[in-house]
Amino acid sequence: MKNLKLSKIHFMLMNYLSLVFIVITFQYMKDLDWTWMFISSEVFFITLFIISFYFSYIKTGTWSFVHRSLEKLDERELKIVGKTSKLAYAIFTIIALAIMLVLSVTAWSINIIFTVALIYFAHILPASILVITNWKEYEEENK
């Protein structure tokens, strides 16, 4: 079972890394020319992103668990979702403020891809924390 958890975490890390590379590649292509090498790398990162999203969040059920209506959760599940969401949004706030600080002292600007990536990050962070901290409990109860 530990190998299964490791693979979930590996897919989760691939998802985050591919998201970062999508943003970086798009920013680099925006500033330069859209050569076939950059377009093919962007397609590769998007494909990796979709595959890793499926295996780390959809197939495991963590995406639907943290986005389920509160009325459909029992007391224990509410506690898990509340704890992971609280931690996730605390982390997101710190990261977002750090990004704003960096942007305010540099000439960098936010593009649409970066904005979409931040919105995605805010939504996926509770599921990531669930995978890392509470997944074993949730998995055993829902066999």
Sequence-ordered SSE layout with sheet pairings:
Layout: H1 2-31, H2 36-58, H3 62-66, H4 75-105, H5 112-141
Written overview of the protein:
This protein is mainly alpha-helical. It contains five helices and no strands.
Notable characteristics:
83% helix, mainly alpha, 5 helices, globular, 143 residues
Number of helices in the DSSP assignment: 5
Distance between the termini: 13 Å
- Which structural class do you get from the secondary structure elements? mainly alpha
- Average pLDDT works out at 84
Helicity range of the residues? over 70%
Number of strands: 0
Strand residue content: under 5%
Shape assignment: globular
Give me a quick take on this structure.
The protein has helices at residues 2-31, 36-58, 62-66, 75-105, 112-141. By secondary structure, the chain is mainly α.
